[in-house]
Structure formats: C-alpha cells, structure tokens
Specification:
The chain is built from four helices and five strands, in the order αβββββααα. It is of the alpha+beta class. It has a five-stranded mixed barrel with strand order 1-2-3-5-4. Strand 2 and strand 3 form a beta hairpin. The termini are far apart.
Length: 167
C-alpha cells in the first residue's frame, strides 16, 4: 500500500511524452514540393540485392532550403536533374537514410514524374489511369468465345480503331 507522501509526489512529477516524426524534413506537412538535384541508384542493406532508384531533393520553400534523400517508386522513371517533384513521408526498409518517397502523379502541373505505363494493380499508388484499351483487354480475357466478337465489333464502331490482342 502506498503512503500519503508517495501518492502526493506521484502527482507532482508528470512525465513528458515526446513524439518523434517519421519524416521530420516535411515539417508536419503531408507533402512538400522540391527539385531533384541528383538522381542515382543505391544498393540496399544486406539480404536484398536489387538496386533502388533514389533522388536527392531540395525543397523550394524560402524558409529552409534543406534537402532529403527520397525513394522513387516503380520500375522505371523519367526523372532528371532539375525535375519538379512532390515528396511524401514513408521510409524504405532496405535503404538506410531514406525516409521520404516521391509521389507519382498523372498531373504534369504538380510533378514531372509520370505514372507507370500499363499498370493494372495498385494504379492509384503509381499514377496510372484506367484507359479504355486496358479495360477492354481485361474484359476480353474474361468473356467466352461467342461474346468476344460482339465486344470488339462494338468497340471498333465506337472508337473507329482496330486493335489486335496477342495472348
């Protein structure tokens, strides 16, 4: 059982909890705009071996012109030096010192990094739009042989184009 003195002392000394940001370079913002100053590939930590694309990004705010090492998601990219990018938080486990990721968008006004081409799964993460051709290819694979002819004859009438699909 605690004594009266112990109970009063417990209330006096309150512990302060410190919260640490996972991406402190973003300064509590969800995203920040920046400019790539260096684009290269980096070797990951021990068990993994595939080289990862990274970019050194300088932020464009006037208050602080600090830079951060950012991961470029996806298989290919079109980033060069002086490309405008949008940076979000999120570390990469394989790469030491990388605590930010570059956002892939289909809007060229925000970022120069384009979305992936012909991406079917997780399209929102990689900035890929659901094109009419890709949608029809998916439908073509799911239909029976009798329905295939009807789909593509109507598609050619709508678009005025003809497509050949090779399995």
């Amino acid at each position: 059982m605690a004594t009266l003195i112990q109970l009063t002392k417990k209330n006096c000394r309150k512990k302060r909890r410190y919260t640490y940001s996972r991406a402190p370079i973003l300064r509590k913002n969800p995203q920040r705009k920046g400019v790539c100053t260096k684009v290269y590939k980096m070797a990951p930590k021990k068990p993994c071996s595939a080289r990862r694309s990274v970019a050194w990004v300088m932020f464009v705010t006037k208050r602080d012109r600090k830079g951060a090492l950012c991961h470029i998601p996806g298989e290919t990219h079109n980033l060069r030096v002086y490309s405008r990018v949008l940076v979000r938080g999120g570390r990469v486990k394989d790469l030491p010192g990388v605590r930010c990721r570059i956002v892939r968008t289909s809007k060229s006004s925000i970022s120069d990094l384009q979305g992936l081409y012909k991406r079917m799964n997780s399209r929102s993460r990689y900035g890929t739009k659901n094109t009419l051709i890709a949608h029809n290819i998916r439908l073509y694979r799911n239909l029976n042989e009798n329905d295939q002819l009807d789909l593509f004859s109507s598609f050619e009438e709508i678009s005025g184009l003809s497509y050949s699909i090779i399995d």
